[in-house]
Predict the structure.
Amino acid sequence: MSRVTPLFELQQVDSNIDRHNINIANIETTLLDKTTLEAARQAVSDVETLLRNTRTKLKDLEFETQTVEKHASDLEKKLYEGLIKGVKEMKAAQSEIDTFRKRRAELEDSSVEAMLEVEEVEKSLEVVRQKLATVENEREKSLIPLTQELTKLKKELGELQLAREKQVRKITPSDLPLYEKLRSQKQGVAVAELLMGKICGKCRVDIPLSKQRDLKSPIVIITCPSCGRILYLP
Ligand SMILES: [Zn+2]
């Protein structure tokens, strides 16, 4: 076995560990992301507030209508019972009654508008509540497979870490620092497989003949002249 073989095998384990870490991070991000859920909840809360305000407005209008009508009726009663004396006073009372009645008619129109508004907002509330239920339901459904996948990946990661420890023991200790240095500098890939006996499997550069020859020796470490990675002859 060449000196590079255990390094290549370690590289495979490490790449697998890297993939697992990326997948785990992605799933955890998805699980933590509640943006859609929170937006749907906020929409319900906003429409609920709007509905409360619209209902209050309607109630106020109804109350004011009753008050104005009572004023008009009281005055009318006084007038018919002869409690208001004098032509001038009676005219003034009648004019006040007319003003109250006019105001009541205006208030009734506003009440009708407010009633329609309440109905509209009630419909909107139904829509946003339905949307929230859908979002919650979909989230619930997607969480189960994601959580299962996460558990599986974490278990596999544990196994890979054990495999890595075992693999590290097969490596010539002085080769490890170079391997680790290249891993950190070369996007996690320190060892490149030689393709067709002459091409760097990572940067695709042709390896000079002299290096190709040296690669056949089981005791030396040859690096790619272009990307600097350790070359592995399968
Ligand atoms: Zn290369």
Summary: The first helix runs from residue 5 to 32.
